[in-house]
Design goal:
The complex is a heterotrimer of chains A (81), B (816) and C (120). Chain A has 3 helices and 3 strands. Chain A starts with a strand and ends with a helix. The longest helix of chain B is centred in the middle third of the chain and has 30 residues. Chain B has a 5-stranded mixed beta sheet, covered by helices on one side. The chains are: A alpha/beta (81), B alpha+beta (816), C alpha/beta (120). The interface between B and C is medium-sized, with 25 and 25 residues.
């Protein structure tokens, strides 16, 4: 089963994303974040998801090019997947 | 001029005054702690210049810093002429600071840079100057490859490549650790912006996230912050510029560590010791003993723990004690100290035990490594245990720069951390306001009396209660304000080592200048004005007091003469002494001169004691006769010195013994801003006497009041003390009863009074108009009830009294 | 367009803030008293708040706490205006949730530098 989350992985949304994941991620194989935005709170959320559901695959939509920090963060997240 | 520049100018002045004595100390011997301290101050200066955007000074200080760093590392050998090069360099900085104050940020003189670089290069010709002087930040400290190769352990090849390339291109490589507190988001910070700013400075490489502190999703509050980021930054920017990005972030909870990569790598071999690891639990039994470079950090941690404990009041936070204990036990273990105590059950007792422990470790470390361990490391701002205030100071921000203390001594240095600068005008205003507050407060007690007189006892009591409360607060405030107002005498003393060095060189004399008591605190106004008189005395000692080296050897003395500058607080006064171990003053020649100038008759002189003849040195007329200075070595402008000292409410005395030396003793009130006076009744009038002039008040019996050689005196504990004829100069008659009350002055004379009415803090205003001619009063003050209190000038009273007896007209500097 | 809320009892300070913000094209709401500003938090949602620490009526630190307590303002940057002598208070304000500070007196340039770190 795949779960799609259409909220950006940004601080104002992380609590809502967390609620959704807790509701839907159990038993899922893959989570797809369809928005490319990502900040430190988003990374932290991903780390917590991995700790809670170690076998879950996580995919984040590719970011806008040029946003250096986004790339940094994204690379960091993906390298650990 | 921009605010930042103004601030920099002030800071630069302060740092330069710290630098000079350190450089001069190098002349006595080059030691690692001294070099470290000097390096630290120069590094701060450079950093501040960078932050203020002042390129010229930045460049020159960078060059000096490089030289010092070479000396520190041993790369540059210490050779003769080092002190001269450094002095020349810092003189250059001074000149550039002056230029900057006039609005010019000029590049440093090229020859100067060449000279400094030349010294550093002198014995390491394999390093071309261009490389050593690389203008980008810290410059390569070791061959670049070695640094990164070590760093490379565990780094991906591509990251290693980027770092290496950066170093080869003369860039700086820093390793950053961003370890923020839980509230990071709720403080309005944005990590993305910070990363963008970093990326704006150069290239980010090896970016990594440590998520080990993040809880599982179900237990996560996603608005708490748990991540630790590490990354390398390849940049042309200096460490200060990198740190500037985090200026608003760094605090107790939000820690940012920026380290040059080379240094970082060295530290990585002993991970438990690097500051950013200190907060984490170590593997037991694996911690190596302290090495020198970590000591300042350790001492800092200890001080922090001590402070935390002391701040934790009666009901100690239960969580704090075990934490402190853990930290202390670790430190004790690494310092090689046993730590047998178990935690006490009672928190209060545990707190005491821990304080004791901290003290013991501090003592042990201090004893082992000397005073230099007491100072904070130059990079304290990133240790995370520092107070945010000090953190701000380290990054060169506005507030946290303190007054200079003596280079040795932990307490002065500690004070430097927490002190911050106050504008001169602010201090003035505060002083005036707090003075007026005291006077205004005084008026309340008169109001109480009025109410009592009218039988309104209840109101009187209520007002009295309030009065006592306000009294306590205003006094406390006055003391605190006074603290701002006072400066360490070192501010003046610090200007002499250079003068003495240069002057002695010029005169071909060998001189040691010894200063003591530099931390004695004194009124800012007095500090400013006492420099000239002291300069005069020191110059005289150099010119005339000290003999030529050959003469000293002939006289069986050490060829190196000693000039001493000492200060000491004595009650309400500060005593400053300028002494030398030179030839002393020839009093007979002095007296002879006074006679030949027609200032005194031969009879007058022949009746004089040696001490009285010595005081002729202060005769105004003698100053103009230059022969006298050749004969006696004294006399030039001494009356000017005395006048300045007197204007400051002080006295000056001279002691001299032939062949052994001369000492001038200046006694000053420690402040002139407000005075505490003793209110006394003389005849029908009430007068004030500066408390700083009073040594005691005593009651004596009539049989102890006598007349000796026509002068009234009192016998006090076997000592004969002249009585001042207060009743002659002031209104009323002194009534002689069975006993008398005497106010004994420091100058060993006493004023008989009817009664002592108590103390009061007042602001003395000079008398105006006709009253000015009544020299016996130093001024007047308005009391709380509106009455005017005349304040007596004890020195003048004494002078008038002595003149009454002896028409010789010699103005005595101080009685004896 | 970013919107900034500025609170200071001094019209001069507010004027110099306006100068700096208009250059950047930010919208600005100014208030002389913290109480008024609090009332407008929800109707004029700001992206950044600037506040003096010493004000008659509600002081800056209480104000900062109140702003942070509003759900919409949990993460926005709050800049406090301090003076040289307010180090202790500055720390208190940081604990209350202030993000950054600028020391009075300041020039529009200096304020702009601070804002550049916080909004983009």
């Amino acid at each position: 089963m795949r779960v799609e989350i259409d909220l950006p992985l940004l601080l104002p949304y992380v609590e809502e994303i967390r609620q959704r994941l807790l509701d839907q991620a159990a038993g899922a194989e893959k989570i797809i974040f369809t928005k490319s935005d990502l900040d430190a709170a988003g990374i932290q959320l991903i780390v917590a998801v991995r700790k809670e559901f170690p076998s879950l695959k996580i995919e984040i939509a590719p970011g806008q090019s040029g946003k250096i920090c986004h790339l940094l963060l994204l690379k960091e997240v993906n390298s650990d997947v | 001029m921009s605010n930042l520049k103004k601030i920099f100018l002030e800071e630069a002045d302060e740092l330069l005054t710290q630098i000079e004595p350190l450089v001069l100390d190098l002349e006595k011997g080059v030691s690692p702690p001294l070099l470290d301290e000097l390096f630290r101050v120069v590094h701060t200066l450079k950093g501040s210049a960078g932050i203020a955007g002042i390129r010229g000074i930045g460049e020159l200080t960078h060059c000096l810093e490089d030289l010092l760093d070479g000396l520190r590392s041993g790369e540059t050998e210490v050779r003769s002429g080092l002190v001269d090069v450094l002095l020349m360099g810092f003189d250059g900085v001074k000149a550039m600071v002056a230029d900057l104050a006039a609005g010019h940020d000029l590049p440093p003189p090229e020859e100067l840079i060449r000279e400094i670089a030349g010294y550093g290069r002198g014995n390491s010709p394999e390093l071309p100057a261009e490389e050593k002087m690389s203008p980008s930040g810290t410059g390569p400290r070791q061959p670049p490859d070695a640094a990164v190769e070590k760093a490379g352990d565990g780094l991906p090849e591509e990251v290693r490549r980027i770092l290496l390339d950066g170093l080869h291109q003369g860039q700086n490589v820093y390793h950053l650790t961003l370890d923020f507190g839980r509230d990071f988001f709720r403080q309005g910070h944005n990590l993305t912006y910070l990363l963008e700013d970093l990326a704006g400075l150069g290239t980010i490489a090896g970016f990594a996230v440590d998520g080990s502190r993040v809880p599982v999703l179900s237990r996560l509050n996603p608005e708490d912050f748990h991540l630790v980021f590490t990354l390398y930054l390849v940049t042309g920017a200096t460490r200060e510029e990198v740190e500037e990005i985090f200026v608003f972030v760094v605090s107790d909870e939000n820690r940012v560590v920026v380290k040059p990569a080379g240094e970082y790598v060295l530290k990585e071999t002993t991970p438990a010791e690097s500051p950013d690891n200190a907060g984490r639990p170590p593997a037991p039994g694996q911690e190596p003993p302290f090495s020198c470079e970590h000591l300042p950090y350790v001492v800092n941690v200890l001080r922090q723990q001590e402070k935390a404990l002391k701040l934790a009041a009666g009901d100690v936070l239960p969580g704090l004690l075990p934490v402190v204990r853990r930290i202390l036990e670790r430190l004790a273990g690494r310092a090689g100290l046993a730590c047998e105590q178990y935690p006490a059950a009672d928190p209060g007792e545990e707190k005491e035990r821990l304080l004791g422990m901290a003290g013991t470790i501090l003592d042990a470390l201090g004893a082992e490594y000397g005073a230099d361990t007491a100072g904070p490391p130059s990079r304290t701002g990133t240790s995370g245990l520092e107070s945010p205030l000090a953190g701000a100071a380290a990054s060169g921000s506005i507030a946290g720069v303190a007054r200079q203390g003596s280079p040795e001594g932990g307490t002065a240095r500690e004070r430097r951390q927490s002190a911050f600068r106050v504008q001169r005008e602010t201090a003035d205003a505060l002083m005036n306001l707090s003075g007026e507050l005291i006077v205004a407060k005084n008026s309340l007690s008169y109001l109480v009396k009025k109410l009592e007189v009218r039988g309104l006892d209840e109101y009187a009591r209520e007002l009295k209660d309030r009065y006592h409360y306000i009294d306590r607060i205003s006094r406390e405030m006055h003391n605190q304000v006074m603290d701002i107002w006072l400066l360490p005498v070192q501010e003046v003393f610090g200007r002499f080592p250079r003068f003495v060095r240069d002057q002695a060189k010029k005169l071909g004399k060998r001189v040691d200048l010894v200063t003591d008591g530099g931390d004695t605190r004194l009124d800012r106004d007095i500090i400013e004005k006492i420099y000239d008189p002291l300069l005069h005395l020191v110059r005289n000692a150099l010119d005339h007091g000290l003999e030529e080296p050959e003469d000293r050897i002939k006289a069986g003395k050490n060829p190196t003469g000693v000039i001493r500058l000492t200060a000491q607080r004595q009650g309400e006064r500060v005593v400053i002494q300028v002494s030398d171990d030179g030839r002393g003053i020839d009093v007979e020649a002095l007296a002879e001169k006074a006679v030949s100038c027609g200032m005194l008759s031969r009879e007058q002189v022949s009746g004089m004691t040696g001490q009285e003849k010595l005081r002729l040195a202060f005769l105004p007329g003698l100053s103009c006769k230059d022969e006298i200075s050749d004969l006696s070595g004294r006399g030039v402008g001494m009356d000017a010195v005395e006048n300045t000292v007197k204007r400051l409410g002080g006295t000056i005395q001279v002691e001299s013994s032939p062949g052994r030396g001369t000492a001038f003793v200046i006694s000053l009130p420690f402040t002139m801003a407000t005075s505490e006076v003793l209110m006394v009744r003389v005849g029908q009038g009430v007068y004030g006497l500066p408390l700083s002039a009073v040594s005691e008040t005593v009651r004596v019996e009539e049989k102890d009041l006598r007349t000796v050689r026509g002068r009234p005196v009192a016998l006090l504990r076997g000592e004969i003390i002249p009585l001042l004829p207060g009743h002659l100069l002031l209104e009323g008659q002194s009534s002689r009863r069975g006993e008398a009350v005497l106010v004994v002055l420091w100058q060993k004379a006493a004023l008989p009074v009817e009664a002592v009415l108590g103390k009061e803090v007042i602001i003395v205003k000079p008398l105006a108009g006709e009253l000015k001619r009544l020299s016996v009063f130093m001024g007047a003050a308005v009391l709380g009830d509106g009455r005017v209190l005349l304040v007596l000038d004890p020195g003048e009273l004494l002078r008038l009294a002595m003149n009454g007896q002896d028409k010789g007209g010699i103005r005595l500097a101080g009685g004896n | 367009m970013y919107k900034v809320m500025a609170v200071d009892d001094s019209p001069t300070v507010l004027a110099s803030i306006r100068l700096a913000l208009e250059r950047r094209g930010y919208g600005l709401y100014t208030y002389h008293r913290a109480e008024e500003a609090l009332k407008q938090l929800n109707s004029e949602r700001a992206d950044l708040v600037i506040t003096d620490l010493n004000m008659p009526g509600m002081d800056g630190i209480t104000f900062i706490k109140q702003v942070r307590a509003n759900a919409d303002y949990r993460f926005i940057p709050i800049v406090m205006l301090t003076t040289e002598s307010q180090q202790a208070k500055k720390e208190e304000a940081r604990k209350a949730g202030a993000t950054a500070w600028i020391t009075k007196p300041f020039t529009p340039d200096q304020l702009e530098m601070v804002l550049k770190k916080l909004l983009r």
